[in-house]
Amino acid sequence: MSQDHTVALFVGPPGAGKGSLSGFCRRSLGWEQLSTGDLLRKCISEGSELGKQIDFIIKSGKLVSDELINSMVEQWLIESCGQGMRGVILDGYPRTVAQAKSLCEFVEKSLKGSRLKVVRFLVEDTVAVERISARFVCTNKDCQAVYSGLKNSAMKPREDMKCAQCGEQIGKRQDDKESVVKDRLITYRRHEKDLLDFYRDRGNQIIECDAAQPLDELFNEFKTLMNIR
Ligand code: ADP
Fold first, then answer.
1. pLDDT at 3
2. pTM for this one?
């Protein structure tokens, strides 16, 4: 498979807006998007033994194994990276150096010509926690659209708490409870430095976005930094 497109790796804490910006890129730029969190929640909803194990890990704020997530992502990339595709966003992957190594090897071998761009979302933990506590998600695992009850949000939930995209009920994610959020932030920060050092050492530029700003401004900054017109 020989390609010429961008593979953007979104790195940032939970609540940074990675999924929301990915949605903008999908709708406005026609890019493909993979959220590993969405993929894992879909797997849980299928009720298999593997799904039960994943559910347990997610509820504890820890990471699923590198081997499992690497193979899920490779499978998705093989199925989704078609000719003529402009860009793909990996939201929430890689999260560890082992995942990043595996992805870089896969891209070199199977997605020749792809431009890897690391996009780092800078935001304080307090802002991230505030956003997560106001977050609602569509319970339809094929949709998982995200809403926010925060003042001035462009993605407010409807009064009937039904998803504006698919009509299903929206609700809270089980791992958005305050105690789990704290653990997710600790898990993220534990891996962040090593992950960024790994990219720097192999010469990948790290593009830094101010993720505390409103989403439309973040999207404009993202396009400018990525040289997208
Ligand atoms: P967030 O980025 O807000 O933590 P996600 O929806 O991306 O939320 O992920 C939810 C959970 O899914 C994570 O806390 C983790 O348990 C699991 N997960 C997602 N992506 C990965 C990954 N790349 N490696 C290991 N576990 C992952």
1. 57
2. 0.93
